[in-house]
Amino acid sequence: MAEDFYTILDVPRDASQDDIKKAYRKLAMKYHPDRNQGNKEAEDKFKQISSAYEVLSDEQKRRRYDQLGHSMYTQAGRGGGGGAGGMSPEDIFAQAFGGGGGDFFSSFFGGGGGRSQHNGPSKGDDLIYELQIDFEEAMFGADKEISFPRSDTCSRCNGSGCEKGSSRKTCPQCNGRGQVTMSQGFFSIRQTCSQCQGTGSIIEKPCSECHGQGVVQKTRRLPVHIPAGVDTGSRLRMSGEGEAGEQGGPAGDLYVRIFVRKHEVFNRDGEDLHCDVPIQFHVAALGGKVEVPTINGKTELTIPAGIQSGTELRMRGKGVPSLIRGRGRGDQYVRVIVEVPTNLNAAERQKLQEFAELCDKDQHVHPRWNAFMKKARRFFE
């Protein structure tokens, strides 16, 4: 079982941002590839702690991670071997230690001079909503309404975080650079400014609605159209319905993941349907027509004389509607189960005995039985 991000950084789940950053910096210094050249294990560990730090150091990502749990979050594509949001481990390292990019040594010894790159608008996180639907809804399509919590851009400040009539001002701690230089031992480290979080500016008067966050938590109600033919595992993308973006960035997307409840009659295999239909003994022997269920109602199926139990009959175009335009529908396969009569009365038993005696006189009635007996005769001698 994969370690969660808190375990990887060796911090408690209620750790502060400062504690998370300190834990990351300690581990990053220990496992950085430049200090462990040729050590694959250290390289993998460095990637793990980078992924963990990128998520836990971001309030929105951390909140979503806590809600979904490690397994669901990483399955959604946010926790891979590199940075969870697309940043490389080296970029995460440089950001955590105040570097503007480049390699390990240039970050530590003042490389990459000039004005730092401030955090600009960024897209919000994607959300995943799991929706259970009935088998019939998957076959014919349906319109549903879902509700879920998400962050929305604050309507009072339009995402700026500033109260009306106020604005951001240059950060006095870093003079708008977004970074500060600290001396540690015999070298200097450029760090992200703790007062402005690297933006180079601070909010003079925080918005009274969102308290300077630029976003507020709301419950979103959304109509969802389920197209005919969806199956368990299908994902519907709702553009712009995810978490609000930061600093005016676009919202993320919402992915509705479908789970289809099992049906009491039909089993699905791609675009085909399968079902078992019991038929009477005499219908199997003589042939005839039987009524069978389909997703559109009952229909007649012709049973050829002499059909054997377990035989599948194909009904073209009676299966699942295709999600691909122009492909029509799959097929339905009916597996015939010949039911042997039970609880016979005296008259029925007598008739069946007479039938058996007639069959014994005609070897052509049971060709499979006769063929088997020829092969097995030597075992009976």
From TrEMBL:
InterPro entries: DnaJ, DnaJ_C, DnaJ_domain, DnaJ_domain_CS, HSP40/DnaJ_pept-bd, HSP_DnaJ_Cys-rich_dom, HSP_DnaJ_Cys-rich_dom_sf, J_dom_sf. The keyword Iron-sulfur does not apply. Keywords: Chaperone, Cytoplasm, DNA replication, Metal-binding, Repeat, Stress response, Zinc, Zinc-finger. GO terms for molecular function: ATP binding; heat shock protein binding; unfolded protein binding; zinc ion binding. Zn(2+) 1 binds at residues 154, 157, 207, 210. One of its GO terms (biological process) is protein refolding. Participates actively in the response to hyperosmotic and heat shock by preventing the aggregation of stress-denatured proteins and by disaggregating proteins, also in an autonomous, DnaK-independent fashion. Unfolded proteins bind initially to DnaJ; upon interaction with the DnaJ-bound protein, DnaK hydrolyzes its bound ATP, resulting in the formation of a stable complex. GrpE releases ADP from DnaK; ATP binding to DnaK triggers the release of the substrate protein, thus completing the reaction cycle. This is Chaperone protein DnaJ.
